[in-house]
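Feature request, filed as a ticket because there's no other form

It would be nice if the structure record came with a short human-readable summary line next to the tokens. Right now we just get the raw output. Example of a typical job, pasted below so the devs can see what we mean:
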Amino acid sequence: MLEIIFLQASGNNYSQFIMLGGMVAIFYFFFIRPQQKKQKDTKKFIEAVKKGDMVVTLGGIHGKVFSVDEATITLDVDRGNKLVVEKSSLSLDTSAQYVSKK
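Raw output as currently delivered:
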């Protein structure tokens, strides 16, 4: 039984393997590669955060970086209110708008 399957697959018909290779390439270039690029950009952004930067957390909190530690940052959110959040909770959203203090 297996001999028959191998004989049929070993013919000169390589179109199935070409199609499979094409599907793998499409999957890589449209799904895996962009996700890896986004993760690399986010990691680079988080490492470059410094005091005075405007940031947005994944939860949607906008604030100005007050201090930076190894794993956490302190955000000044409004009128001296400060929040301590993990660096990993920062979003790569570049449209961070900080409402001016009243």
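Something like this underneath would help us a lot:
The mean pLDDT is 84.
The chain has two domains: 1-48, 50-102.
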